Amino acid sequence: MSVSVLDGGWSLRPRFPLAGVFGVGARDEIWWKRAVSAVVALAVPDFALLALGRLDLAVYTSAGAMCALYAHALPYRARARMTAWIGLVMTGTVAVAITAAGLTGSAVLLVAVGALLAAGHKVFVEALRAGAPGNVVLTFIGAACAFVPHRLGEVPGHVALTALGAVFAWAVVMAPALRRPHGPERRAVARALEAAAAVDGPAGRQRAAAAVNAAWQAVLAARPSGLERLVVQAEEALVRTPDADRLRAWARALRETGTVPDVGLSGEQHEELVGLAVERTAARPAKVLPGLVPVVLRTLLATLLAGWISLLLGVGHPYWALVTAAAVCQANAVLSWKRGLQRALGNFAGLAVFTLLLPVSRTGAVVLVLLILICQFVTESLITRNYWLGTVFVTPMALLMTEFAAAEPGFVLVTDRWLDTCVGVATGLLACLLIVDRRAAHRVGLSLARLERARESARAAAPVPAATALASALTELREAVEGADGEWWRRGLPEERIVRAERDGHRELARLQSLP
């Protein structure tokens, strides 16, 4: 059923597609950096504790080690700040969780603590723009620690172990800067040059604009390195036919370890470089809180319901349901539906993998640690291709990590995880149906207004900055429309106005490209 009302009114559109949910994409080009960093950050403290005969403490050092999964696409100055913030929040999460566990044995209250942490993690990662793996790792660690019995006297030592693991993870993530101090921004500019070389029609220009914007963000977050000139050259492809061979040659040079290609600029290009740099440096980040309120409320409701329903069903690990619900809650109902299906398939397949690995893992502590490290590496190699593929190995890794504290019957672990997956997916989807983002259509209106202003100002501005602003506005509008269209119950969108605005924007881009 699909009922739409143009320019006002409410629209009931319960569309939950299957297309693309389980498709397998290409690997992220830096997946191996996250994989190696995570394995090193986990392995060193785990084997140190193993040598000391205290592998039961590995859950706390592993919590800190998980900080090594974040920020790999950022320049090193920004990466240092981001990873430090992640480490502080991770350490604080463990402190809150184990303090709560030491103060009360009530599973009902501990679920509430886990749910509040999950909602707080959602706000934190969105406000900080932390990127993948988002809030789920933080929530998993917090919820798991809350259900490990603690005495209050143990809290300082366990928190210190988490902090130590986070500091080591920070060092691991920053170590490549010793060899290639400008590596991340060079990769970002190389991607922009490659996208510019492949410009072909409106869709190609929008992809190039997105890559150029990402390159500017990377370059301006780092120390000056001469890369700015190459970003300007990539930007030229938005309005002029590019010299694809030359752009690709520059991109290859950036991906190597040599010097940055020496690129000259015309007087006009130099003025554009100065103006664009000033504009981007002065620009304030967009406010994320207004659009975040619905998804935070969904996360809170879904995690509370998931944990409490799991308790009612007699499941011994209710935090697994809580974490699944937190993972399912996305920006809109359609994205949550897709994530729910991916999570369910990945978890169920992962339970089969865990069943095969469990007997092997119990042959010795060294084998247990090695299996966890292998699962971590494989997860990072697959999760960017499709979330469900990564979850196939996240599931056994998480279950094997419970073996650090105490071994439980395999049948109990598998049954609990199966039930918790069903409960978590169901409550996550239910929360998305109950709590609707009623301002999604309003954000579409704001994006339309911005696009119309960009199109009007394009006639008076220099071609390159005008094309960049226009392509960026087109991308913002498309993202706002897709976000609003993913809500199952929303205020009707001005469909005809959207189509007309996008058409006129693409025509204006074509006009700019034809200018000498």
From TrEMBL:
Signal peptide residues on this chain, from the entry's feature table: none
Subcellular compartments: Cell membrane
Origin superkingdom: Bacteria
Regions that span the bilayer: 58-76, 158-178, 288-313, 349-374, 386-406, 418-436
Positions of the Integral membrane bound transporter domain: 305-430
Keywords: Cell membrane, Membrane, Transmembrane, Transmembrane helix
Entry membrane topology: Multi-pass membrane protein
Protein family membership: Belongs to the YccS/YhfK family.
Protein name: FUSC family protein
Source organism phylogeny: Bacteria, Bacillati, Actinomycetota, Actinomycetes, Streptosporangiales
